[in-house]
Amino acid sequence: MKISIKSSDLAHYLKTVCRVPDRKSTDVFGHLLLEVDSSQLRFSAHNGHKQMTLAIAPDLYSLVGEAFRICVPAQKFDSVIGALPKDAAVSIQLAETKVVIASGRSRFTLATLPAEQFPVMEFTADQSKGDLLIPGETLSASIRQIGFCAARSDCRSFLNGIFFEFRDGTMTLAASDGYRMGVIDVPVEGAPMQHFILPSTCIEDVCQFVGSGPVLISTSGSMARFTRDGGVLHTKLIDGKYPDYRRLVDSAAKGDVARVTRDDLAGAIARVTLLSEGTMPLVRMTITSDAISVQSVGGGVEDVANDVLPCDYHAEPLEIGFNGVFTNEIIRSLGDKECDLFFNSSGSGTLLRGRNSASTSFVLMPARL
């Protein structure tokens, strides 16, 4: 069978599915499974922890000849397609045990592996612990809004991912690295399903994969599946009990509120951290009834940055230290023009929320100055 398709159309799909393979691997985990028959053209990738399958829209390609299934090296295949001129006509066909890619006067021959070596990650309907239908755009936006708070290589494995919790009418996502935590509540329809922890290594894969159409989330205990039109993504889940994030948010919410303009605060912190030294640039905040003073920490005696911005605060003055980078990441992720900071003490977590976005909360732990 011969496949004819535009290089840009194929590259669009490869950009997503080629996130999965282990590009340093020479075995099947570094390959794409290419499946072609009279009704479909699809690519699958598997790296031992997650598997993605994408079917290319039928109106983007044409097929001639007999069906085939073969594994092609992911990095080489992706690189070849990406190097071709935009919108160039590309033909792909199997010649004995090799795949031949041709475009104009360019011709590439790639060694392959048998399709039988490609592993299968799947669970059946009777193994399912529940499912939920949600718009892909809503899911990806929610993950991105708090996903940066998730740890990547913490010894506490349960922190290396996003916690999905389901209750009647609400899906809650929580992520923390021990220094900061993000929590977002998303209205959903359907019965509660199994809670799970999505690995940090899969966060961006899910966001790239789901698109804007409806996505069905299903679980089977140790595995989650995200199904969209023309594609399926399976991933193994992190085993462990997630901390009681609600208790931390509720405790921080008891603090005294300082109301500030989001962009003013973000700009002040960004400027001040330019003169804060160390691998974790710190800032000192002094909060009074009408102003927040932001000062650099750790620079030279003569190299000091200080910025002052107005605020609305009705409590005793407070001085507290924060990691400047962590603080700004949180502030910039708040969607409202005004944000509320709930201060308890210089030694406990501070709650940050958009003025009109109570469904999204961040708790930032203080730094020792």
From TrEMBL:
Keyword presence, Secreted: no
Family that this chain belongs to: Belongs to the beta sliding clamp family.
Predominant localisation class: cytoplasm
Stretches assigned to the DNA polymerase III beta sliding clamp central domain: 134-244
Organism: Pseudomonas violetae
Annotated keywords: Cytoplasm, DNA replication, DNA-binding, DNA-directed DNA polymerase, Nucleotidyltransferase, Transferase
Name of one Pfam family that matches: DNA_pol3_beta_2
Name the record gives this protein: Beta sliding clamp
Leader sequence segment: none
